[in-house]
Amino acid sequence: MSALKDEDPRIHGIKTKIRVVPNFPKPGAVQCAGIMFQDITTLLLDPKAFKDTIDLFVERYKGKNISVVAGIEARGFIFGPPIALAIGAKFVPLRKPRKLPGEVIFKEYTLEYGKDRLEMHVGAVEPGEHALVVDDLIATGGTLCAAMNLLERVGAEVVECACVIELPDLQGRERLNGKPLYVLVESH
Amino acid sequence: MTQNTSVLSPSNSPSITPTAAAAAAITRRLRAPSTLTTVSASRPLQFSWIRFHLYRSSVSPLLCTVSHSVEEEEEEEDREMASEDGQDLRIARIASAIRVIPNFPKPGIMFQDITTLLLDTKAFKDTIDLFVERYKDKAISVVAGIEARGFIFGPPIALAIGAKFVPMRKPNKLPGAVISEEYSLEYGTDKMEMHVGAVEAGERALVIDDLIATGGTLCAAIRLLERVGVEVVECACVIELPELKGRERLGNKPLFVLVNAA
């Protein structure tokens, strides 16, 4: 579900602040499968629109017994912590290989060309915890799937995945195996 | 602000009554202020996250470890640290929540791991609050955060003080037109980039990162901002490694930190 149907008046302001950059990045990364990169940095330059973005997530998740917000490196680190702080959850960074200094578990996932890996610290999340996974955007859903795998392997329940932007044409939502996805903005 | 407290001991501790855990934490640190963590990389499974709040950290809260002679006080006038009475307990908890990992990323380095701080909801909130209290009435319009751990602390500060957040990134991550600044590493160089047009001349900015070591990355960020006419008001980090003299490398640019790591 996205916020489009009963569109909150704040959504329009958020959508107009996202900049689309053609022909980025270099071949091999998921977003360039098309040509049009969804740049959220311009959203971050508008304090009201950035605040509205966080508020929309916080309003949805506050009081829902969520104890973990997992954010995917690196743009998930921008949206995840403010949500975590506002709902009283801990923030868990999910990182590229060899960044986390302690003992980790990892999940490999495929890219258009080759593979990548997502890591999480052992002990960051305990069994039975309720978690959100946050990233700026869902494309094919590969990274989100890897994130959910890490959390579920340590016994956490992933309540929902939350992204600012969805690229519906890449069918990431279907790849989440029935796990709910909440987005603010769709981009075709 | 001049730091003029002596080493904190139970006899001259502030008038706030600490919780038992905080008092125990402060006392442990006083007994062994420069003790390094006993967590060893070869036996990581012994480290229990559930008991992290009992964890002994090599990080010392500033208020507990700084002692001054009168002459030293005069040299301190440019130093900025979190030191108000009411902040003692918040700082102590923040320091306790930081985990030290030996020999990461290479032998001999004691890595200051802030991910454990992010698991302590109160300590993480206190961290942000301490920065927000300092900056909220200072007409700061830009918070620049250095990839990637600066992305964790910068945005909550920016949101709370009504500033925009500008990510300072490794090469080829930002999709639009960028300006870049090269800086040296121990071996070789790296580059930091910022979007053209993210900031405007005359804006007042903070630069945020989790930690200052040699100061090379912070200097690159300062240069990027100043090149486009921004005034960098202060650099703010959770942790300082004073032996690496990053503060000196910043020159006349003020630095504010919450915790020193011995």
UniProtKB/TrEMBL annotation, chain A:
**Protein name, please?**
adenine phosphoribosyltransferase
**Top EC class for this record:** transferase
- Keyword Protease listed? The answer is no
The entry's cellular-component GO terms read:
cytosol
Taxonomically, the superkingdom here is Eukaryota
What compartments host this protein? Cytoplasm
Specify the Phosphoribosyltransferase domain's residue ranges.
47-170
* An example Gene Ontology biological process: purine ribonucleoside salvage
- List the Gene Ontology MF annotations in alphabetical order: adenine phosphoribosyltransferase activity
Alphabetical list of PANTHER family matching this protein: ADENINE PHOSPHORIBOSYLTRANSFERASE, PHOSPHORIBOSYLTRANSFERASE DOMAIN-CONTAINING PROTEIN
Its family remark reads: Belongs to the purine/pyrimidine phosphoribosyltransferase family.
Write out the catalysed reaction: AMP + diphosphate = 5-phospho-alpha-D-ribose 1-diphosphate + adenine
Could you tell me the keywords of this UniProt record? Cytoplasm, Glycosyltransferase, Purine salvage, Transferase
The subunit field of the Swiss-Prot or TrEMBL record says: Homodimer.
UniProtKB/TrEMBL annotation, chain B:
Keywords attached to this entry: Cytoplasm, Glycosyltransferase, Purine salvage, Transferase
Say yes or no: keyword Flavoprotein present: no
Q: How is this protein annotated for GO cellular component?
A: cytosol
Q: Which GO terms describe its molecular function?
A: adenine phosphoribosyltransferase activity
Record's keyword annotation contains Ligase: no
**Which InterPro entries would you find in this protein's record?**
Ade_phspho_trans, Adenine_PRTase, PRTase-like, PRTase_dom
Pfam assignment, any one? Pribosyltran
Q: Which Gene3D superfamilies match?
A: 3.40.50.2020
Give every Phosphoribosyltransferase domain span.
124-247
The pathway where this protein functions is: Purine metabolism; AMP biosynthesis via salvage pathway; AMP from adenine: step 1/1
Localisation: Cytoplasm
Q: What biological processes does GO assign it?
A: adenine salvage; AMP salvage; purine ribonucleoside salvage
Taxonomically, which superkingdom? Eukaryota
Spell out the reaction equation it catalyses. Answer: AMP + diphosphate = 5-phospho-alpha-D-ribose 1-diphosphate + adenine
Q: What is its EC number?
A: 2.4.2.7
Describe, as the record does, how this protein assembles with itself and its partners: Homodimer.
**NCBIfam families attached to this UniProt entry:** apt (TIGR01090), PRK02304.1-3 (NF002634), PRK02304.1-5 (NF002636)
**Membership in a protein family:** Belongs to the purine/pyrimidine phosphoribosyltransferase family.
The record's section on HAMAP family has:
Aden_phosphoribosyltr
Q: What name appears for this protein in its UniProt entry?
A: adenine phosphoribosyltransferase
- Source organism of this protein record: Morus notabilis
